[in-house]
């Protein structure tokens, strides 16, 4: 058995049987595959139903997440849609109360129309989750590190509650990746990703991945993938596979930089509060220390009330103002007016999103250059 970091590099090539000895899986663009004769039992007939390039990536992510089967989708949202589409009218899902805005929209403006019921609960509090369970509850869905305030949920504790009541645990592992946490090992049944973020890693593709722990769930996700059809293209699969090969080295640098930048921000007078699970003394730190192999590389922070957060981001020279995350380049955004703008002011407040809050996706540049950029912009504010 090889180790995780070796599997990142070699995992996908181990499965290819290319006649020319190609060390990377070929990109199969064919939409359809010829039958040797009309009665042959072929593995591939149509690329929405199955494609060798996609199978290769799907086996890789299943291997990395320690699951039964993996599935690749055209976006993180398509992946979430496929997962939630297995439920039926009347089923209830307990939701972490701080989830990605796009997931919130899919649930409220789409799945509720199909009579799925959702109940938002603080998943940091397993007792509250247990108290919310009703006879209709079928699953608990949450993000391990929440967006944008980086509150940490214990996969172990929540999946123990779920198991006790015969429910599924579904974890969005986008912020951590299997390099930092493998939720299926901690008790989850389904793990999913916006692979657009750290797994892809280069701001150049949109993708989603799902991995199931058990075969019956895999069959349901396969049905949704084939029937609804939100598959990832072979070209994007190749980009994603290449991104995954460098995941470990990128995450190491991302995290090393994030620790330095969190420290820098904590030391600055202009910064009122820093939210980062790597700062000791919080419940987030405790859970992350127990269950995660690191603290990730997302930092949120609030500027002092008398300082202008818009001016602050506008003055940055190196760090891009952009809404995505998990890329090699550092990205910063204002959740109140950008990623979480669709939340009402009350919901924003409930989620801890103030106009002074900034969400910072720390890249893999030289940390000193990032510090210098933040410092010059903060210096201009306090003049
Ligand atoms: C935690 C999380 N889950 C899911 C998604 C949706 O993924 P995508 O944008 O790839 O559709 C995002 C996007 O930002 C996200 O941050």
From TrEMBL:
Single GO term (MF): pyridoxal phosphate binding
Residues that bear N6-(pyridoxal phosphate)lysine: 197
Any one GO biological process: methionine biosynthetic process
Gene3D superfamilies registered for this protein in UniProt: Aspartate Aminotransferase, domain 1, Type I PLP-dependent aspartate aminotransferase-like (Major domain)
Domain of life: Bacteria
PROSITE patterns: CYS_MET_METAB_PP
GO cellular component, one term: cytoplasm
Claim: Cell inner membrane is one of the keywords in the record: no
InterPro entries recorded: Cys/Met-Metab_PyrdxlP-dep_enz (IPR000277), Cys_met_metab_PP (IPR054542), PyrdxlP-dep_Trfase (IPR015424), PyrdxlP-dep_Trfase_major (IPR015421), PyrdxlP-dep_Trfase_small (IPR015422)
Pfam family, one: Cys_Met_Meta_PP
Assigned keywords, A-Z: Pyridoxal phosphate
Cofactors required: pyridoxal 5'-phosphate
Record family assignment: Belongs to the trans-sulfuration enzymes family.
UniProt name for this protein: Cystathionine beta-lyase
């Amino acid at each position: 058995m090889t180790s995780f970091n070796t599997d990142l590099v070699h995992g996908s090539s181990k499965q290819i049987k290319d006649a020319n000895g190609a060390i990377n899986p070929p990109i199969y663009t064919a939409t359809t595959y010829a039958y040797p004769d009309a009665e042959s039992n072929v593995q591939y007939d149509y690329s929405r139903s199955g494609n060798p390039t996609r199978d290769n990536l799907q086996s890789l992510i299943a291997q990395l997440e320690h699951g039964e089967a993996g599935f690749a989708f055209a976006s993180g949202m398509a992946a979430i849609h496929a997962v939630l589409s297995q439920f039926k009218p009347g089923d209830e899902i307990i939701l972490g109360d701080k989830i990605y805005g796009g997931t919130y929209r899919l649930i409220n403006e789409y799945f509720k129309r199909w009579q799925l019921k959702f109940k938002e609960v603080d998943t940091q509090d397993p007792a509250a989750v247990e108290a919310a369970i009703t006879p209709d509850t079928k699953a608990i869905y949450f993000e391990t590190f929440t967006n944008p305030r980086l509150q940490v949920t214990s996969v172990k504790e929540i999946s123990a509650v779920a198991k006790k009541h015969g429910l599924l645990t579904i974890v969005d592992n986008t912020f951590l990746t299997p390099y930092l946490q493998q939720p299926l090992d901690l008790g989850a049944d389904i793990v999913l990703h916006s692979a657009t973020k750290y797994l892809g890693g280069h701001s150049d593709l949109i993708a989603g991945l799902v991995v199931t722990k058990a075969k019956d769930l895999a069959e349901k996700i396969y049905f949704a993938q084939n029937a609804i059809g939100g598959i990832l293209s072979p070209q994007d699969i190749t980009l994603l596979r290449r991104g995954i090969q460098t995941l470990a080295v990128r995450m190491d640098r991302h995290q090393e930089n994030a620790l330095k930048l969190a420290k820098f921000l904590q030391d600055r007078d202009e910064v009122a509060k820093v939210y980062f699970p790597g700062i000791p003394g919080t419940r987030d730190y405790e859970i992350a220390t127990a269950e995660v192999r690191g603290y990730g590389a997302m930092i949120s922070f609030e500027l002092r009330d008398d300082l202008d957060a818009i001016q602050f981001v506008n003055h940055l020279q190196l760090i891009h103002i952009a809404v995505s995350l998990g890329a090699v380049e550092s990205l910063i955004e204002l959740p109140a007016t950008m990623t979480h703008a669709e939340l009402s002011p009350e919901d924003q407040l409930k989620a801890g999103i103030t106009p002074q809050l900034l969400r910072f996706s720390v890249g893999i540049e030289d940390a000193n250059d990032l510090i210098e950029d933040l410092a010059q912009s903060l210096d201009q504010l306090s003049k």
